[in-house]
Structure to design on (242 residues):
């Protein structure tokens, strides 16, 4: 029996039934209201000091040079709470990943074209945040790494799978997946509300999270991160929660 689908945000379903002519439309523009409503406004001045301290540290490490903006890390959304999709429970938490053989599994069930393209862009050894989505308090709980680059997602051909796609052909599969392995838990849970507080402050002062896709393309289940975005979010695990 295959593992439950790793596609965790409902927005990714939107592209599934679109004809091939619409593949060029690779982004979902509708905000993820479930997560957006759970996020909070930033406490006044709480983020800027953190950003300045982080920036000072980074400048001392790099000689003040600006990093080239490239996507080399990722954020993977997964649902930690039970939810049935066509009779199948799609729950998959980081604890479920840790319970897999070698703490490794495939990340299947992605049915959004841009998210699929991000999967195909992943490189061996790259790290990603494991993000609990569509739950009481969304946020980052751990880190995983890519241990196998993109290959055809077998669930697209399985008629019993909730993400079966009758329009996909084995000679030219539409959908891909990668294998991921657990690296570690973050030192503390980093909630969406806290990340959003920094994002809003960075929009005003030019910080690294100003264009973070978690807020500009909320519904994508697979999201790229720049080195600066990844490093800044990771630095939050060292701070006391607000």
């Amino acid at each position: 029996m295959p593992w439950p689908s790793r596609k965790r945000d409902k927005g990714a379903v939107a592209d599934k039934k679109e004809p091939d002519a619409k593949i060029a439309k690779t982004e979902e523009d509708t905000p993820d209201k479930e997560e957006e409503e759970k996020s909070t406004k930033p406490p006044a001045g709480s983020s800027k000091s953190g950003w300045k301290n982080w920036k000072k540290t980074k400048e001392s490490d790099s000689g003040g040079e600006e990093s080239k903006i490239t996507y080399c890390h990722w954020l993977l959304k997964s649902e930690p709470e039970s939810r049935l999709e066509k009779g199948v429970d799609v729950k998959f938490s980081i604890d479920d990943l840790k319970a897999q053989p070698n703490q490794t599994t495939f990340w299947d069930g992605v049915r959004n074209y841009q998210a699929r393209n991000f999967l195909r862009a992943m490189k061996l050894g790259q790290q990603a945040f494991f993000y609990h989505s569509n739950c009481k308090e969304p946020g980052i709980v751990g880190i995983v790494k890519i241990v196998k680059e993109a290959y055809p997602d077998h669930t697209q051909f399985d008629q019993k799978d909730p993400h079966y796609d009758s329009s996909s052909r084995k000679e030219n599969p539409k959908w891909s997946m990668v294998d991921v392995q657990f690296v570690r838990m973050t030192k503390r849970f980093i909630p969406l509300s806290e990340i959003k507080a920094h994002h809003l402050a960075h929009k005003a002062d030019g910080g690294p999270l100003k264009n973070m896709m978690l807020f500009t393309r909320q519904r994508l289940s697979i999201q790229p991160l720049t080195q600066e975005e990844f490093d800044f979010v990771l630095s939050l695990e060292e701070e006391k929660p607000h």
User: Anything to note?
Assistant: Residues 7-49, 62-67 have pLDDT under 50 and may be disordered. Residues 46-62 form the longest helix (17 residues). The chain has seven helices and eight strands.
